[in-house]
Specification:
mainly alpha
């Protein structure tokens, strides 16, 4: 009986999350990314692990990792959704590194973070929470993220914590900030190779 209840609750959580992502993506000027966001969550490998480990307060992926040591849903998900940092992580002979994530995917990433907070925290969600979550969880260095992307994320999340979501998820502001950082990174990289 629990499995059937979890089936519908998990399905509802996915839909609610995708709805918030869509709304935020529309505000940010990338509605198509919001429309197709997380469609892989309906695939059997992701959906049924989500049902099994559903609790309503946190991603089922975390509970799968605690119980089994890994999550097949996450392995499937991160390889198919370009709005995750892990998708852009690469390795060479000596180190792991993060690529500079294209604009539409990093903005979708921010919308995803906002929506996750809204869904899992409900009425306890506030504009400071995404920055706190970033500082306490994602910034720890386990995932290699390009320094320019870190700067972009921190600047946007700081603006959200001060000015709110509506003022911050502004296409003009986001594009200007993103391309300024990309240009600065490009100049720095060129200077590294000067003889």
């Amino acid at each position: 009986m629990n499995y059937i209840i979890n089936f519908f609750k998990h399905f509802h959580t996915i839909n609610k999350h995708r709805w918030y992502v869509f709304l935020y993506c529309v505000k940010a000027g990338i509605p198509f990314r919001g429309l197709i966001h997380d469609l892989s969550k309906y695939s059997p490998v992701e959906f049924f692990e989500g049902v099994k480990y559903y609790n309503g307060h946190e991603s089922p992926i975390n509970f799968a990792k605690i119980e089994k040591g890994n999550s097949y849903a996450w392995l499937h998900h991160k390889g198919r959704n370009k709005h995750h940092f892990e998708y852009w992580e690469d390795i060479n002979e000596t180190e792991r590194y993060g690529a500079f994530i294209p604009y539409k995917y990093i903005v979708e990433c921010i919308c995803d973070r906002l929506a996750a907070g809204k869904v899992y925290l409900g009425k306890n969600f506030n504009n400071k929470e995404p920055l706190e979550y970033w500082n306490n969880n994602e910034k720890k260095g386990l995932i290699k993220i390009h320094p320019g992307i870190i700067e972009f994320i921190e600047t946007v999340l700081t603006k959200i914590s001060v000015d709110g979501i509506d003022a911050s998820l502004n296409s003009k502001y986001l594009k200007k900030l993103y391309y300024e950082i990309r240009k600065k990174i490009s100049i720095e990289e060129k200077n590294e190779y000067k003889i």
